[in-house]
Specification:
Layout: H1 19-25, H2 52-62, H3 83-95, E1 101-105, H4 108-119, E2 125-130, H5 134-143, E3 150-155, H6 159-169, E4 173-179, H7 191-205, E5 210-214, H8 219-222, E6 232-236, E7 250-254, H9 257-270, H10 276-286, H11 289-307, E8 313-317, H12 324-333, E9 340-345, H13 348-358, E10 363-364, E11 374-376, H14 388-393, E12 400-404, H15 410-423
Parallel strand pairs: 2-3, 2-4, 4-5, 5-6, 10-11
Antiparallel strand pairs: 1-7, 6-7, 8-9, 9-12, 11-12
The chain binds pyridoxal-5'-phosphate.
Length: 424
């Protein structure tokens, strides 16, 4: 009689209740990595096959000619797939409620453009919310036009306006693209409402209309678009997922695995996959995402409470201060207000620049979601490609400063904001 190896009687699995637990290691199986407690790095470009027949089979699987066997990994070449990308993807699936599959990318823009290239065809129109991250707006309005794909913007927050535009586009509407909260004003859009508009359009026109949501600002911890009817969730993983301002990466998730498979196919040929070291760092970051994001959100809420009535501020855009329709959206789809704040200074650009130059803890930089506090003037930096009238329409005024709250001690940050406001 052969003895059972020690440990073989461990219970298979228990139900995980909370992302605090999932974030630590769900999706990672030590048995696939020499029982290492944490994931090793595989800085490898190509993988060898046991036999020539196995190589042929792996290609059949990669090209969709054969089914993937349960538990096998079919590694071929790191542009198609790599173990670190897969481990990060599995970790993120465990955190993103409603997700069935994930694909990781070399940047947020790689994830977004790969989604456009996978799902749009000549003649299609994308309906998107305004404001939108400048890079995404640029791809939609400038780079897709030569391929016969066009885009139309609708002010964030109005399901009625989205429905009106969708109806006017008929069967040319292929995708509704929502960024909520929108960058940089934090204006929110009702995801369930947008899903209803997509469904109604699909029923009318007998064609699929995908709802894609850029969830970069609130992340899987505070907002779950797939549970509200989105088909696709997109991330700049450079932000909260990475969380340390030391990687550039992206991710896409869906309930329907077929959507992710379609994106991975495009990813293989365009070479937009996340490389192993970056994916390893991202997976390392996932272990602290809950702790970081909760702290950043608490810090931001406290700073806002301290300075919201400051005489140098015309207004503060932050979810806890929302009223009316914006408040209803926040309460219906977000679990916390998050770490992003938009301060609107009295005195326009000059005051905004004096405020930024006066900050002593927060650094002046683009990007967001890292452990360190960063601030920027969107009108002259990240949104500056937009024509002035569009920036005005989107609420990106000369006095607007975007503030990404880090994990520092909140009173130090609030003191910093107050002393910089005094100089503004
Ligand atoms: C909301 C949002 N989406 C997408 C992106 C693009 O991501 P990346 O810079 O990782 O390509 C950004 C970048 O700032 C962003 O803020």
């Amino acid at each position: 009689m052969s003895a059972q190896p020690p440990g073989s009687k461990r219970p298979a699995k228990i139900r995980i209740r909370h992302p605090e637990t999932s974030a630590i290691g769900e999706g990672y199986d030590p048995a696939l990595s020499v029982m290492a407690v944490r994931p090793p790095i595989y800085p490898v470009s190509t993988y060898c096959f046991r036999t020539a027949a196995e190589a042929a089979h792996f290609f059949d699987v990669a090209l969709g000619r054969a089914e993937r066997a349960e538990g096998s990994n079919e590694l071929i070449y790191a542009r198609l797939n790599n173990p670190n990308a897969e481990m990060f993807e599995d970790g993120l699936v465990a955190l993103e409620r409603g997700a069935g599959a994930c694909a990781s990318f070399a940047s947020g823009m790689a994830a977004i453009t790969t989604a456009f290239l996978a799902f749009l065809r000549p003649g299609d129109v994308v309906l998107h919310t305004v404001p939108l991250y400048g890079g995404t707006a640029h791809v939609l309005h400038e780079m897709l036009a030569p391929f016969g794909i066009s885009a139309r913007g609708v002010d964030a927050g109005s399901t009625e306006a989205l429905a009106r535009e969708a109806a006017s586009l008929g069967d040319r509407l292929a995708m509704i693209y929502v960024e909520t909260p929108g960058n940089p004003t934090l204006r929110m859009t009702d995801i369930a409402g947008a899903a209803e508009v997509a469904r109604a359009s699909a029923t009318r026109t007998h064609r699929r209309v995908l709802l894609a949501v850029d969830n970069t600002f609130l992340g899987p911890i505070f907002q779950s678009p797939l549970e509200h009817g989105a088909d696709l969730v997109l991330y700049s993983a450079t932000k909260y997922l990475g969380g340390h301002s030391d990687v550039v990466a992206g991710a896409a998730l869906a309930r329907d695995e077929e959507l992710v498979v379609a994106m991975k196919k495009v990813r293989s040929f365009f070479g937009t996959i996340c490389e192993p070291f970056t994916a390893w760092l991202l997976q390392r970051s996932l272990a602290t995402i809950y702790t970081r994001m909760v702290k950043q959100s608490k810090n931001a809420a406290r700073i806002v409470e301290r300075v919201k009535e400051h005489p140098k501020l015309a207004c503060v855009h932050y979810p806890t201060l929302f009223e009316g329709g914006q408040r209803r959206i926040f309460e219906a789809q977000c679990r916390a207000p998050g770490g992003m704040i938009a301060f609107e200074l009295q005195g326009g650009q000059e005051a905004a620049f004096r405020f930024l130059d006066g900050l002593r803890i927060a650094r002046i930089a683009v990007s967001l979601g890292g452990v360190e506090t960063l601030a920027t003037h969107p009108r002259t930096t990240v949104s500056s490609e937009m024509p002035p009238h569009e920036m005005d329409r989107a609420g990106i005024g000369p006095g607007l400063v975007r503030y990404s709250t880090g994990v520092e001690y909140w009173r130090d940050l609030a003191d910093d904001v107050e002393q910089a406001l005094a100089l503004a």
